[in-house]
Amino acid sequence: MNLAKHWRQKGTYYLFQGQRHKTTGEIRFPARPPMLGERADDWLPTVLSGKGEIYSFTVLRQAATEFESATPFALALIRLAEGPMITAQLTDCAEEDLFIGQPVEMVTRLLRRPTDKDGVLVYGYKFRPVLSSPS
Amino acid sequence: MKQPEQPVGVIGYGVYIPRYRIAGREIARIWTDGQNVPPVESKSVPGPDEDTITMSIEASRNALARAAVPAEQLGAVWVGSESHPYSVKPSGTIVAEALGTTPWISAADWQFACKAGTEALTAGMGMVSSGMSRYVLAIGADTAQARPGDALEYTASAGAAALVIGPADESLAVIEAMVSYVTDTPDFFRRADRPYPVHGQRFTGEPAYFHHSRSAAQRLLEDLGRTPDDYTYAIFHQPNAKFPQAVAKQLGFRPEQIAPGLLSPQIGNIYSAIAMAGLAATLDVARPGDTILMVSYGSSAGSDAFSLRVTDALLERRPRAPLTATYLARQEFVDYAIYVKWRNELVLG
């Protein structure tokens, strides 16, 4: 069930927490351990805004069993407002709603339905087109 | 009537309604060849990646945005629902973690059919009033279950509402007083390990919904020395479109007093969230000085009635998060086949 793996990732999955370099201000996401030549305290945890735009996207019509209930769904490269590019599922949208450069925002959703009825439910970030107020 | 020793109020409010809808006539098409007159026009349908926890998180983020209270200052995150994704494992822990309130927090799940959310609200008032916590987050959320083909299938829907409770002098609406009225009246229930609830048909009406809602509302009005004319707005629990309008009329409220908070014709009954979402929709249009009566109802059975007075702070805080109308407007209709797939009614082997 990978309980420990999901537990370790909750900062990334739930809070959308990345890292900010304490000197340069560079943002990276997801957070990762120090690379060769870096000090452990060079990078500080920081919660990102959850805002970004679609760099590119594709639509999955056949997916692994855990994702079957959600097909078809879109998968996108998203350029975050803070700079990093990430891959994430899109939600609350149809294929014809989407375009490159579209503003999107982070929401917390069920990432997959476990095929095992005793499995843990895994929640995390997805993106949707920014909510617009009714005119 | 119960009044907090130290005055309390609503610091922030938030709502969440899924994007998807199914029309009542589409359900009637499947089960009655279109002959049944649906009790609501349409109901909200949770997407395949939504449940009580995800909806609670978004409603709570909206409530915290309005409150402008740092999440770590919350003393409790309490989730009222009858559709918690786990039987054992609190929804509250996941919601609290996603809001950034952990670890010095009380988190728990509440259950009282459709008034689990206002039970959390009542407890939150006590927690704040006693000084044990400055702020408490009370949530009502549901992805309600209904046996396919049952009358409930037309209305059992999904949504969430969240209220940040805190000191009255920081509030956008002061909660003046409340009343709870509870009896053992088995009008609707779901046994442990059963997938769908059962209900007592007409027994859910007069001895259950109407008696409890009227009793709580009348007692609160009497104790406060007020009449329906003293209130700008009122919200009642909404198991369908007809009941809240009927009980409002019985009590002497005019249709325009309940109009802003009457959501069920569009989204059905979002169970633990419906009264609090009706309050949110009413706060979306209210003005400082307005008075609001909110009456929840939970089957088997009880009602909570609350009297609120809107303060000047509402006008500044309201635009900080999406209005209820924003969620109502983004409706995308699905057919019964998609609805069944997303509700996990299909056995895939």
Overview of the structural elements:
The complex is a heterodimer of chains A (135) and B (349). Chain A is built from two helices and eight strands; from the N terminus they run ααββββββββ. Chain A is mostly beta strands and 135 residues long. In chain A, 9% of the residues lie in helices and 39% in strands. Chain B has two domains: 192 residues, 3-Layer(aba) Sandwich (Peroxisomal Thiolase, Chain A, domain 1), CATH 3.40.47.10; 140 residues, Thiolase/Chalcone synthase (Peroxisomal Thiolase, Chain A, domain 1, 3-Layer(aba) Sandwich), CATH 3.40.47.10. In chain B, strand 4, helix 3 and strand 5 form a beta-alpha-beta unit. The mean pLDDT of chain B is 96. At the A-B interface, helix 2 and strand 7 of A face helix 2, helix 3 and helix 11 of B.
Runs of chain A with pLDDT <50, length 5+? none
Q: Please give the largest β-sheet of chain A.
A: 5 strands, antiparallel
Q: How many whole angstroms does the radius of gyration of chain A measure? A: 16 Å
Distance between the termini of chain A: 46 Å
Shape of chain B: globular
The end-to-end distance of chain B, rounded to whole angstroms, is: 54 Å
Stretches with pLDDT under 50, minimum 5 residues of chain B: none
SS elements, strand count of chain B: 14
| Major β-sheet annotation of chain B | 9 strands, mixed
Helix content of chain B: 25-40%
Q: Count the helices of chain A. How many?
A: 2
Any idea what the radius of gyration of chain B is?
19 Å
Q: Would you list the SSEs of chain A in sequence order as H and E?
A: HHEEEEEEEE
Query: Can you say what the CATH homologous superfamily of the largest domain in chain B is?
Result: Thiolase/Chalcone synthase
Q: How much of the sequence of chain B is in beta strands?
A: 15-25%
Portion of residues within helices of chain A: under 10%
- The structure class of chain B reads alpha/beta
